[in-house]
Specification:
The complex is a heterodimer of chains A (about 70) and B (about 400). By secondary structure, chain A is mainly α. Chain A is about 35% helix and about 0% strand. Chain A is flat, with a radius of gyration of 16 Å. The chains are: A mainly alpha (about 70), B mainly beta (about 400).
Chain lengths: ~70, ~400
């Protein structure tokens, strides 16, 4: 079973994500298309490998797309 | 099967071509090819050095929504840590080969991606594969994703074939995520990872010193190899970890770009069935200096508690009385990491095509404090990475 603290945190974060958002049209996404706004992690393979060795935890690459509105 | 091969073969051909000659993509007109070469060097205060050259490539069709990519790297590891010295062993060197390939197809609001990876050293073979499903909603203001991965590791010993000695380790990775555009400057993601591990992942080289109850009380954090050798019992069993583990991670990511700079903050909360809990926070502030150069400072904080069976000094009463679970892996103990670094991205292409050539470099240092471990109480690590990417 998932720990209760994580379940609570998940609900809170989901509520935060889906509430208070404005609808952003494609022509308003110039800033979102910037490489630094990529939904995926910016951590490179070398850095990622270092953290996987130095930290007992795992996981964290959360995003699967979205952002600039392109494919 | 024949049909599957027919479908897959063109994608594999393109992947191979993009790795060898990215110019192929240019000839197609509406395709984009990428090729990159990267070199990283890692050094820590425990006498471990890792040199890693990497090549990667990919080709994609932005209009059709498909893409393929691949990566190959070699790790050259040299180590003479206190753990190795304490077993009266000399510095060792090892070479690891690792590669992965991936393909994705997202013609509209729905997308699929598959990937496979392998890693090999003479005493460790790792194979994994997985797939991701994504669905855009609300005119791409909201993206849902779900992924599954399966990994299989074969753990052996150097100089001994896998058929003589090996242990199998299997893991399943599941992830669900939500990415939401909050406003034209703000993007937020939330993800939940669930990992199931089965098998014996104990290190076949890691021996655990045992002590009488009286001597164990004399062992403090950072006890030297000589001190441990003088007080330990003759019996020195191998590490033994539990054979099952479930791991949970909840991650939130925020990317905010009000002007010419982007703030990125990642937070991960983690817990597992070995009773480890951790929090990891990562900040990056990427600043544009003109239209070619971006620089960023980076700060990362990680704290974790120890697993339930962690002990600084394991106690025995003698005559084969060995603690059932035992480890000397400091990354399973209580620790804190404080990392900081700098990054640079320099677009070198001709005017109007600045991103055709991009040089990037990062330097990151991590200070680690081990609260209750033998041999070392702290560690300093430095990682330097240089990457050159060409887009055609």
């Amino acid at each position: 079973m998932m720990p209760k603290s994580l379940s609570f945190g998940l609900v809170l974060l989901l509520l935060a994500v889906v509430s208070g958002c404005s609808h952003v049209h494609a022509y308003e996404r110039g800033k979102l298309a910037h490489p630094s706004m990529a939904p995926a992690s910016l951590v490179g393979p070398g850095e990622e490998h270092m953290y996987s060795v130095h930290e007992g935890a795992t996981g964290g690459d959360t995003a699967g797309g979205g952002g600039c509105g392109c494919n | 099967m024949q049909l599957t091969l027919r479908r897959v073969a063109p994608a594999l051909s393109v992947a191979a071509a993009c790795l060898v000659c990215p110019a192929v993509a240019q000839a197609e007109g509406n395709l984009t090819g990428r090729a990159s070469a990267e070199t990283s060097v890692f050094q820590d205060s425990n006498a471990t050095t890792v040199f890693t050259p990497t090549i990667a490539g990919g080709v994609e069709s932005p209009t059709s929504g498909w893409g393929v990519n691949g990566r190959y790297l070699v790790d050259v590891v040299s180590a003479a840590s206190p753990d190795i010295v304490s077993t009266a062993s000399r510095r060792w060197m090892e070479v690891r080969h690792a590669g992965n390939i991936g393909a994705r197809y997202k013609p509209g609001n729905t997308g699929f991606a598959i990937n496979g990876a392998t890693s090999y050293t003479p005493d460790y073979l790792s194979l994994s594969g997985g797939g991701t499903f994504t669905q855009d909603l609300d005119e791409k203001n909201l993206t849902l994703s779900a992924s599954y991965g399966l990994g299989y590791d074969r753990i052996g010993k150097t100089g001994t074939s896998f058929s003589v000695f090996s242990r199998d380790f299997v893991y399943h990775l599941m992830n669900v995520g939500v990415t939401r555009i909050v406003n034209p400057s703000l993007l937020v993601s939330v993800g939940l990872d669930f990992q199931v591990e089965r098998g014996d992942q104990s290190k076949p080289y890691r021996f655990i010193p045992l002590f009488t109850a009286a001597d164990a009380s004399k062992i403090g954090a950072g006890a030297s190899p000589d001190q441990v050798a003088n007080l330990r019992q003759q019996e020195k069993p191998l590490e033994q970890l539990p054979l099952a583990r479930e791991r949970y991670a909840l991650t939130g990511r925020l990317a905010y770009r009000p002007g010419k700079a982007t703030l990125r903050v990642d937070e991960r909360l983690y817990a597992d069935t070995w009773s480890m809990k951790s929090t990891t926070t990562d900040f990056r502030y990427l600043m544009d200096l003109g239209d070619r150069i971006t620089v960023w400072p980076h700060v990362r904080f990680h704290y974790q508690s120890a697993v339930s069976f962690w002990q600084l000094a394991y106690v025995t009463t003698g005559s084969g009385d060995i603690p059932k679970l035992r480890t000397g892996d400091r990354e399973l103990g209580q620790l804190v990491n404080l990392g900081t670094g700098l990054g640079l991205r320099w677009a070198l292409g001709a005017r109007g095509k600045q991103d055709a050539w991009v040089l990037s470099a990062t330097v990151d240092g991590v200070y680690t404090k081990f609260f209750e471990a033998l041999y070392v109480t702290q560690r300093l690590s430095v990682l330097g990475v240089v990457n050159l990417e060409a887009t055609f």
